[in-house]
Amino acid sequence: MINERYLRRLRVKPGMQVRLGDYHTGWAQNENLREAGKDSVKERALEILEENRAALASAQELLWASNTYAVLIILQGMDTAGKDGTIKHVMSGVNPQGCKVHSFKVPTDEELDHTFLWRYWRALPNRGEIGIFNRSYYEDVLVVKVHPDRLVNLPPGKRGKKFWNARYEDINAFERHLVENGTVILKFFLHISRAEQKRRLLDRLQDEEKFWKFSLSDLAERRLWDDYLHAYEDALSMTSTEMAPWHVIPADHKWVARTLIADIIATRIQSLDLAYPKVTGEAFEQMKEARRQLEGE
Ligand code: AMP
Ligand code: MG
After folding, report:
1. Ligand 1, from 102, 105, 133: best to mutate by most atoms within 8 Å of Cβ?
2. How far apart are CA 83 and CA 76, in angstroms?
3. Confidence at residue 220, expressed as pLDDT on a 0 to 100 scale
4. What is the pTM of this model?
5. Which tens digits make up the pLDDT trace of 240-258?
6. How does DSSP classify residue 11?
7. What is the per-residue burial (b if ≥16 Cβ within 10 Å, else e) of 243-272?
8. What is the dihedral of CA 134, 47, 6, 68, to 10 degrees?
9. I want to staple 25 with a disulfide (CB 3.0 to 4.6 A). Which of 15, 54, 152, 252 is the partner?
10. Beta strands of the chain (E only): which ranges?
C-alpha cells in the first residue's frame, strides 16, 4: 500500500480553492522518489498495482456478498488523460458480474429533454456493485461550462455564476443523497500536462491502427485547454466534500495513475470492514441437514 500521507495530498480538501498548477503530473513527486530513480520507482509501483488488483478482486466479492454498499467511481480528465486504460488495467481482476462501466457521450435528444442528472441517475450501480463512470455529470459543469451554447431547452436567463453555482450544489446534494443511502463515491481527476497530451495525440496520428481513437474535436478542445483547466479548478473546489472527495492524480505516466487509483479504491473498500453474511440458527441447521441428504444419496 502507498503511504497515507502522500495519498492525503492528492485528496482535495473540502472548501479549498484548487490551483491545478500546484499539482504534479509526473512521477517524481518528491526528493525521495527522485533519488530512488524512475526505473526502481516504476518497478515498485507495478508490484503495488498487482497487489491492489488482487485486493480489489476480493474486496469486490465481499461487496457483492454483503450487498450493503455500492461503489461509484468517477473518472474525469482531459482527452487522452487515460480514463479508458485505467478502467481496463485497474479492473482487470474484478468479476464482470459485479462491475458496470458507463461511458458518457454527448447527450441524446431524449437525455436533453430531462434535467441534467437524469441519465446518470439511471446508470448508478446497484448495491453490491462497483459502478464506473467514464465521464459523468461533471461534464455538465465542464464541457458545458466551456461551451455554454450546449445548454439547450432551458428556461431563459439560465446562465452566469449563479446558474453554475446551483449546478455544483445540485451535484453535492445528489452525492450526499447517494452516500447517505450506502453508495461510496470516489472521484478521480486524471491530471496530465499539455505537453503529454500533445505526445498522446500525435501518437494516435502516427499509427494508422490508432486513428480511430483520434477525433478532430480533440484538437479544437485542446485549444481551449485553459478554459477547461479553470472549469476543472472550479468543479474540484466546489464539489470535493468529506463524503465524496476528489483526488488529483498525476497522470503523465500511466503506471503512476493506475497504481494510485487501484490503491485508493482497494483501501477504501477494505475500510468498509465488510464480512461474508453468516448463516446462523435455524438456517444453519437446514444447511447441515441439506448436506446430510446430499451425502446420503
Ligand atoms: P470520448 O470520451 O472521447 O468518447 O468523448 C465523449 C465526448 O462526449 C467528449 O467530447 C465529451 O466532452 C462529450 N460529453 C460527455 N458528456 C457530455 C455532456 N453532458 N454534455 C456535452 N458533451 C458531453
Ligand atoms: Mg475522445
Report:
1. 105
2. 7
3. 97
4. 0.95
5. 999 999 999 999 999 999 9
6. B
7. ebbbbbbbbbbbbbbbbbbbbbbbbbbeee
8. 50
9. 252
10. 70-77, 99-103, 130-134, 183-191, 246-250
CA–centroid distance, 279 to ligand 1, in Å, is 46
CB 277 within 8 A of CB 65: yes
Give the range of the structural domain holding residue 86, as residue numbers without chain letter: 4-295
For the record, the C-alpha cell of 262 comes out as 487501484
Render 81-95 in DSSP notation, one character per residue. SSHHHHHHHHSTTS-
Structurally, the chain folds into a number of domains equal to: 1
134 CA to centre of ligand 1 in angstroms: 10
Residue-level pLDDT at 218: 95
| Cβ contacts of 289 within 8 Å, gap of 6 or more | none
Find out whether the beta carbon of 150 lies less than 6 Å from any atom of ligand 1. yes
CATH of the domain at 123: 3.40.50.300
**Which cell numbers in the block locate residue 122?**
439511471
* Number of C-beta neighbours around residue 197 at 10 A: 20
